[in-house]
Amino acid sequence: MAEYESHTLDVLIIGAGGAGLRAAIEASATGARTALVCKSLLGKAHTVMAEGGVAAALGNVWPEDNWEVHFRDTMRGGKMLNNWRMAQLHAQEAPDRVLELEEWGAVFDRTADGRILQRDFGGHRYARLAHVGDRTGLELLRTCQQRAVSLGIEVFMECKIVRLLTDATGAVNGAVGFWRESGTFVVFGAKSVVIAAGGVGKTWKFTSNSWEGTGDGHALALWAGADMIDMECVQFHPTGMVWPPSARGILVTEGVRGDGGVLRNSDGERFMFNYIPDFYAKETADTIEEGDQWYENKTDFRRPPELLPRDEVARSINSEVKAGRGSPHGGIYLDIASRRSPEYIKRRLPSMYHQFKELADVDITVEAMEIGPTCHYIMGGIRVDADTAATTVPGLFAAGEAAGGMHGANRLGGNSLSDLLVFGRRAGQYAAEHALGRPDDVEIDRTQVDAVVGHALAPFARDGENPYAVHHALQETMQSLVGIIRTESELLEAREALDALEERAAASGVEGHRQFNPGWHLALDLESMLAVARCTTLGAIERKESRGGHTRDDFPGPDPEFAKVNMVTRMHDGAVVVAAEPLPEMPDELKTLFEEAH
Amino acid sequence: MSSEATVTAANRPAGAPAGSSSPADVTMRLWRGDASGGGFVDYTIENLGGEVVLDVVHRIQAEQAPDLAVRWNCKAGKCGSCSAEVNGKPRLMCMTRMSTLELSEPITISPMRGNPVIRDLVTDVSFHFAVARRIPAFHPGPREADGTYRMAQVDVERVQEFRKCIECFLCQNVCHVIRDHEENKPAFAGPRFFARLAELEMHPLDTLDRRELISRDLGVGLCNITKCCSEVCPEGIHITDNAIIPLKERVVDARYDPIAWLGRKIRRRPSPTPAYVTAALAPAAATGEVISTEPAPRATS
């Protein structure tokens, strides 16, 4: 590797958000030579955007809570499409992961007796989210960051990974990337690689995701031969800002509703009472009076429908706006001003107060917020073994949003931060175990490296259109044809549109030189987004039912046959193909948890 | 187009300029260049209204200058990536609404002056990451018998104020001690890290004593309390009043009355002060090496 900077490692972790940092902490503890590589600066990952809390059945507020209830809530929220074993491990291990954060310096809000306070969130039967006001993700990320720094873990910042490397047997043995600052290439040889690169939101037009959410992790794994599952299951968070245009899509935490906020249409009506699905009827209040009493007394009253899982709420908002009862800017109203005191709102929701004041000139203690659905999270992702986080490719592991299965067809709020911790730790542990079982350093195939470098530099030699224009067109296509409500004809149209967009992307060219050149970075990120868009579209065509984050206008209900399968997408002969494959079956003793459902 | 119709209702007026006097076009005067030099370049672009500075920079990037280097992540004031100087004032570009600026004049955007320039609006922030590595991590005492840590809300609130920090480093950028004095950097942590140190010092569960480090190696005494850091903090953290001044007082207390300090530490916690607290007294390496929190021999008397 004379011409390239190179690093030899046991475990390379791609992504330094919550999952990546937690994996690094675990891998490093085994003595494995561990490094993190991230596209931005350390501490800027999308995890900081998580607001409401981390779900864990600590039982601090409701002693009745336990892992079985959390497991049941998660599976039901995911419309039973979850990998049951992941949901079980997650519910069982989340409390320990949260307590461990406290040991590393996290400072959660407290109960009256000094323990970690927990708050209500949609789909969780009990107040379960450990939180710090409405900036829990920042607390989690900073805690893991400071822990990793104190352990001396190496972090390669502002480095974009272009492709994974494989050996003659197909096992992953490294990665090639470049420093964004200088544009020079770097080769990582690693016995294990963990993908913890987060989400895909930048593929859509209106999204809560930051610029990094371009699906790099998904695409790297796909190109290296890994299976994806259920990529059609994309969560549109019900409450994103809709005005002003520049703020469109920015997240408004579900904590607003957990703390008493309600949704109203242009007539001032609390319309969610008109959208209670049968699946949740038994546990949802059907009168305003009952719903309002639930905040104080969860034993005798049922939860208000504003706290149904996100997919239900997002669809309901969609229907209200479609029926002409929306707000002036095409959303609906989220009202906490008329429900709670200004002091309470500022104490519980300081970032939301700040965000609306600064960006929209709206005082949420006085006025209602205008909100609407925004692309937020992908439940689908890289197929992994529940216990070990191993993908279908030897040497490759995945955790966090990049991995699929944990959340089924819809994720409950608060379950992503706990997912990062539980499966970040497992990925780090098993990636290190895999690496330490292999005494010799990996041998990098120089031909592969040269090919990746050549491919990455190709946009400079082309004088095609600007990659920003292609990205814009991709976002428009996905937003309008593969958005929150889908239908066969539009999905087929999207599939054709993607063929054309792939050609445009392959012909696009970039100006300037390699030093910190965002146009070049986008040209390469675009490849990842196109791969994700392809997987989502193919999965959406084949899943001919509505389930969780996948809603088909032409198949409006769930279909029991589709409940039994994952939609698997993978590379075959240079193209992405899709196939329905059976879901792992839940053991009988866990099935009984669903028979006593309330 | 079932999905589009729902959330982008046609009744939304096209982004009208915020005020009737808003000009049709705005001129953005952006610093372009690298470590070897550069200068301001004017870009004239349509004023769409309802935008923040970062939106306009992004449109320039997409339409006129695709290689314009700028850092950003969340565009919601939560990650602290897009720090720059807007008309000379250190700001987050994502939280600066165009309507708050005088649009009839060119709007100047330059990189943070306190850091070396890499390219255009992107600066070298490695100094701050190196300082972070010099700070001994949180080190709690043992858990309660029931496996929990107990802390009162009132006691964690002052710590939580500092943990709101998004590490935008605007405070580091305006601090007089280092803004135009590169030579002070090895001996000075800067406001962001005084807030971090105050957070650790005030944490009800922490057992380390970092005061020798704070005064001798990280230079809290160099701060002359001009409060510039507090003024630019986008999170409204009272860095000077709530972090730096209390740290200065604690450091002085330690110099003159170590017994009183020890008494406070012991009263505050059920556990005895462990041996590894002395590790923090070891001199911090200016090279940014990690300080071990493992038991270490006492370095000073």
Sum this structure up briefly.
Chain A is α+β, with helices and mostly antiparallel strands. In chain A, 36% of the residues lie in helices and 16% in strands. Chain B has 11 helices and 7 strands.
Characteristics of this structure?
heterodimer; A: 598 residues; alpha+beta; Flavocytochrome C3, Chain A, domain 1; Methane Monooxygenase Hydroxylase, Chain G, domain 1; seven-stranded mixed β-sheet; four-stranded antiparallel β-sheet; 17 helices; globular; B: 301 residues; Ubiquitin-like (UB roll); Fumarate Reductase Iron-sulfur Protein, Chain B, domain 2; 2 domains; five-stranded mixed β-sheet; two-stranded antiparallel ribbon; 11 helices; 32% helix; elongated; disordered N terminus
Topology:
The complex is a heterodimer of chains A (598) and B (301).
Chain A: E1 5-14, H1 18-29, E2 34-37, E3 54-55, H2 67-77, H3 84-103, E4 118-119, E5 129-130, H4 136-150, E6 154-156, E7 159-166, E8 172-179, E9 185-195, H5 216-223, E10 228-229, E11 234-241, H6 255-258, E12 262-264, H7 278-281, H8 288-294, H9 310-322, E13 332-335, H10 342-348, H11 350-360, E14 369-378, E15 381-382, E16 396-398, H12 415-436, H13 446-461, H14 467-481, H15 488-507, H16 518-542, E17 565-572, E18 575-582, H17 588-595
Parallel strand pairs in A: 1-2, 1-9, 2-6, 9-16
Antiparallel strand pairs in A: 3-5, 4-5, 7-8, 8-9, 10-15, 10-17, 11-14, 12-13, 13-14, 17-18
Helix pairs in contact in A: 1-4, 1-12, 2-3, 3-12, 5-16, 10-11, 14-15, 14-16, 15-16
Chain B: H1 2-7, E1 25-34, E2 37-46, H2 53-63, E3 83-86, E4 89-92, E5 107-110, E6 117-119, E7 122-123, H3 126-132, H4 153-163, H5 170-174, H6 176-179, H7 191-202, H8 211-217, H9 228-232, H10 239-256, H11 258-268
Parallel strand pairs in B: 1-5
Antiparallel strand pairs in B: 1-2, 3-4, 3-5, 6-7
Helix pairs in contact in B: 4-7, 7-10, 8-10, 10-11
